Amino acid sequence: MSRRMLPLAVATFVGLAPLAAVAGPEPETPPMGPVFHLDAYWGLSNMTGAVRRHIDGQWAGAMVAYPSKAGLDWNMADGSSARVSLGLGDIQNGADRCCQQPEEAYWSGRLPHDGRVWVGKRYVPFAAQAWEYEAKWGVAADTTVGGLSLSSAAAYDDGVRRGNAYARLGKKWENGSAAGLSIGAGRGLLFGSVHDLAIGADATRRLGRCTLVGEALEAMSSQGSFRFAAVTAEFDTRTRYAPYLSWIYGNDASGDNTNLRSATGGVIIGASKTLTVEPGAGVVNGKGVWWMQCRVRL
Which domain holds residue 111? Predict the structure, then answer.
């Protein structure tokens, strides 16, 4: 079924990408020159059974997924910019590393009427990135079209050596709510798995001081489908304490991804402008988990 739908996915991507040049307001030119950036984690957890340290950010109480990284941004007078970022943790450097260096490396230039093009290695646009949080080499375009946001990308997966295509069309409202629809095509589009076509939906909804963020996707292959859903509730206490609750479900009939049932909660504590501390706990696949991690951002 996924092979029959592949031409439709590619046609959708090709049809959406040219909209990057549709008219919109001219963006402000960012400050020129180099800027150093750092986003680094350090923590302890029992996610693997034994209590161990992790130097990348934990995800869902099940694994590390957010890379510690450092690099350089450079904004130029003509509105173009560049970024080089290297992973500092086990995701790019450990014995069981799942991603290759650099973490990001791209040049970005302006297109007419609020459009922007990206060339190099950058995170692909798909849903809320609750699952597909992955940087790949390729070309991408971002823009706004009549109040809608559009992101599209043609990328290359190093693991399966195949091309991938992604597109996300989204809408934001003044009250902070948002929604989006995504499509992806090409084998390996989700972390090198066997799936070759995916559709996704994401939404953000503010209810008083609570913000709900949700995502659902289905990735298809001849060996079976992968279904994923996630909901996170974030609470604004108007203090330096930001508690949250998260529920995640993942099931892969193809066997290419580990099935996941995760219910966790924690609090992000703003210790300073650059340092946050996050204690958290929950139940993942029937086992109790906990973690304590620090995050430094410069």
Answer: 2-25+47-297
